[in-house]
Amino acid sequence: MARHRILFLASVATLLVHQASAQDAQVMHWWTSGGESRAVSVFAKEYEKRGGKWIDGASVGPQAEHAAVLNAIAGGNPPAAFQWNIGVAVRQLAEQGLLANLDDVASAGDWKRHLPPLLVKNITVDGHVIAVPVNLHGANWMFYSTKVFSALNMAPPKTWDEFLAEADKIKAAGYLPIAMGGNAQQTGWLFYATLAGVGGKEAYRKVFVAHDGQAAGSDEVRRAFETMGKIRQYADAGGTNRKWNDTLALVETNKAAFMIAGDWAKGDFSAAGMTVGKEYGCLPAPGTQDAYVMTVDVFAFPKVTKPDQIAAQRKLAELMMDPAVQVEFNKFKGSLPARLDADVGSLDACAQVGQKVMAGGEANQLPNFALAFGPDTQGQIEDLLIHYWSTPGMSAVDATKEFSTIIANAGS
Amino acid sequence: MRIRNLAAKAVLSPTVLVMLVCFYGCAIWTAYLSVTRSALLPSYQFAGLFQYVRLFGTPRWNVAWSNMFLFGVLDILGTLGLGVLLAVLIDRQVHFQSVFRTIFLYPLSISFIVTGLTWQWVLSPTIGFQNFVRGLGWSDFVFDWITRPDRAIYTLVFAGVWHQSGLIMAIMLAGLRGVDREIWRATRVEAIPPWRVYLNIVLPMLRPLMVTCVVLIAIAVVKSYDLVVAMTGGGPGYASDLPGKFVVDFAFERANIGQASAAAAVMLGSVLTVLAPYLYLELSRRDR
Fold first, then answer.
1. Cβ contact, residue pair A376, B39, below 8 Å
2. With a cut of 0.85, is the ipTM above it?
3. I need a labelling partner for B214 at 20 to 30 A (CA). Which of A82, A260, A326, B123 fits?
4. All residues at 6 or more sequence positions from B248 whose CB lies less than 8 Å from its CB, including other chains
5. d(Cα A367, Cα A119) in Å, to the nearest integer?
6. How far is CA A393 from CA A387, A389, B235, B277, in A?
7. pTM value?
8. B238: which chain A residues are within 8 Å (Cβ-Cβ)?
9. What is the pLDDT of residues A245-277, one digit of tens each?
């Protein structure tokens, strides 16, 4: 009898252990910096609160994480979920049949109604939802030094023309008019800001959403390239291959008036002990007051077969889409919740501005390269932009022509 | 005897296997992928020379490819020249020669990443050498090669030579020390100036050693990915791009395995075309 009891207890114990492991979820991501790891731990804590066990799989940098994820999937030991930048790469994984279908969770939560239409389009492959977008970073922000502008007795520029008219005055006062680094990331951000700010949102959408090669060769785009060329003469000579946080340091130390960057720069400012509205300010980049260039992270879920694994994935997907959890997550991440219905009252002043722009409707919601193109096309555009930026002899007309060819070949 | 042979074979066989699978196997695999339309994941459907047509129509590739030859030739000549010169100078029994040897060998112990980063700072016009000289009073001094698209590749050569010449010096010095003292005595009797002895007698004797050096530097040139990434990032623009960086960018960031494989195949092909005749010539000379 005693032996039976022991056996019974043992089997209950294994059952319990088994049940506990059923809720184990390994989540792979590359969020390791201070604010980022605090952000991801919001998900972890919430998952544990809901009865699961979060196994953190952090890699250093996107490339390492991509390799680790693909290896884990190929090796037959996939994680419960993994982070990726939204875009074609995730879609390709789904087309290969490697990702779980989240249709039931998505329709239960009515995701379609609460997400920006461009995101819905991007996370849907062959009519199935395959990923959870968790944030909306804005790439077209102007971060400026309040000290420099008050010393100049000027307001930050509202258009690029205004900037170009004032830049000589800023320079004469001993400040760098714009902090800019010559690498693909930063020329990309500047291009978003000049294309939306000078070429206009309509031209931007034609190129980025419709992949219209003719629009990419239009006068609007040419004017954006011309503006970039004019901005170049107000950047410093030390910008070659300078990383974005080193460039941002020029604003932090009040050497430069402003920098065009994404809202992830806020993390750098707060690490330097600076607060928005005091030492630095944020405004949409010149001419883009009613545009928000979205940069989005998603979580995707590898296809698994065991019911308990599937349950764990469902639970993760639900909580990542929970509006309150998304707000909490984005408080640390520095971005907006991907859900437009989330209450962002507790986020900072920049996020409030961004949310208003996003709420202005689809016309204001612009895609970044990753949302609009495959990595290959994005690479070609980045090569062109960085080459144009660092080659003063290249004309805006030639750059526009090359750009038009790239877009025409991008496919849909 | 048989057992010893067997042991040697057993010990060597993993190496041979790794060589066959990892080097030759992967080279062939890569070459095959270059004639497919592989993107994020490999595809094995033959697609002709499409990738090569696109590759040579890409301005960035043409810059990177010609840079490899420019960088390669200058780096090999510069490193070999400086390394041999340093070795000869130390061979002339200078004082504190072990100190010099250590100083010249030191850069080699620093990784290419650190080398590149350090030189980037030194050469940056706003914080580096130019700024320093201007601070001394020459306010018009200009040294901004690293920011000039037409000059940036030479700054890479500079860093490469700085990094590698110590190794060449050490190898050549070992060779010079091995030269028979009788030769030196004989030339002294004939009153031949030392520089002629080096140029016409000693260095030609060390030819096989130089071939080794050339191969070593050539390998460093082909794999000089980290130096570019740390120092110029291929910039300004893509003016100082090298094929190694091109391949890595396309394979990993741009999810275009086909382009990356084609670039890698061209890289291997061009290195073989240049190096194979040279090695063949030198090795057959040794047999004679």
1. yes
2. no
3. B123
4. B225, B260
5. 9
6. 10, 10, 16, 40
7. 0.83
8. 383, 386-387
9. 889 999 999 999 999 999 988 888 888 889 999
